[in-house]
Amino acid sequence: MASQHSSAGVYTKSNDLSGYGARTKTTVVGTVGQARQGPVNKRVNPKDDADFTDIFGKRDPKYGMMMYCADTISSNTANAHYVRLVNNAKYAVCFLTVDDMRAKVQKLSLAKNTVNGVVTGVLEPSDVGFLPTDPGIDNVIGAFICENPGEWNNSVSIKVSSSCPKGLDPVAHRSKYNTKIFQIEVFLGYAGTYSAAAETHLVTLDEYKDEFDVQYLIEDKLKNSKYIRFVRNDYMVGSVSFVSSAFTFMGGGEDGDRITEDQIAEAYIEHFSDPEELAVNLLVDTDLSGHIVQRAMQSVADKHINCHVIGNVPSDQQSVNAAVRYRRNTLNLRSQNMSLYTCDIQMFDAHTGRKLWVPCTGYVAGVYCYVDNTRGSYFAPAGIKASANMRILDMRYFYDQDDRDALTDAQINYFRKLPNNLGTALWEQATLLDTPSAFQMVAIQRLTGYVLASAAKTCKIGLFDPNDDILRGYLKEMVEDILRAIRRNRGLRTRNSDGYVIVCDDRNNTDDTIANGDLIMDIILDPTRTTKRIGVRFNINPKGSRATEFVA
Question: What is the overall mean pLDDT for the chain?
């Protein structure tokens, strides 16, 4: 295998021979969508469900479905990465000023940003700036802007006051404390005098450190704020003594327009394409499902050794005939690293106190993560055991036997209601590869990706060492350790087989290969095939027979 790359590295390739006669502890998930709040167009990895809500706010269907899908994903992995997108959303802004720079006692003021008398926000933080020709520019200290855009900004209020110690009058005793240090309090949903601040910051306009070497410069201090940032007016003339206070509600924050499929597709490509930056192994379609987004996701997965796409049949196309048309005519994608799922499911949303229909892909990703954590990524993410932790209230469609056969023939996986009150389960594990191959099964596709990714990581240690029998034997033994663990966990066949063969010797490392700087390791796997159909046969003994007999 001659690599197309000239730089040093471990390069992998899988050969599909199936058409011819180690457990993963944590799954790395990536998804894109809208949210109430949170950083825009940046990957964010919340620590847990509470951290997710703290960053992105409470769930609400007006912001799409990513937050609902995340509820199940974050419950099953601590390594999920979310990208929030907005479209023409606005940041709330307010300006901090003084009445007279020359006055001995200066009066502070906070005012919302207005245009022609109308409170308005800005589309970008860079839109907040100052010019020496702006009216009253000499008395403007700077501007506060919310940390990220959206209507949530309008629930924020700010109070600026002196740092006067308790028991002293801020004006009469201004010689007894540092009037250059002032206090910023940030409130959420301010309801009066007794409201508690969500954040409090002691800051200065100038470089200042206390006896513990703590920096008080306002720009540096507010980098730690979850809610606001500060933009300084460099054209301010004079010095400010903070002996008064000012308060205002923020205003002008807007959610903007619905994000587009093109925006989502571009975000997947921008944030998840580079495996050296983030080796994601599950991409989950959670918002505004469609072929544009799913094709982009699949192209991103191709750039990774071990990455699988969980796609969703659009909500308005989940009847059997419509779903099959979508898969074959609209999406029309042939891929072994992508699977398609249906249908929407109903859940109870504690944030809004109501039942909602949501895409099934969040639950599907939860099943993948659960299987990875408890069994291994080489087990099928389907079936009763894999679906044990799902909490599904209802399904938009109930597929009968003929429906299930048609969906299976079209390589569409689905949720089904089990008989005898056994609950709901994720059924089938088909990829979108449409030629006869073992890679038509998710478990085998992900087993291969896991082995290749693990081998590539392990073999990096051999780069730049002499390409001889010692190195080849050493690397082979390390990869064998990976495969033995998989075999012990039932990922490889053991009956009449070792489950794998590794060739890394003179047979595939010729003089020409070695001279070219390449070391070749061939791995042949004999994966455990999942049980797709169980046949139960009933035999009645012939008349007069008293022995139990088996008829083949």
Answer: 90
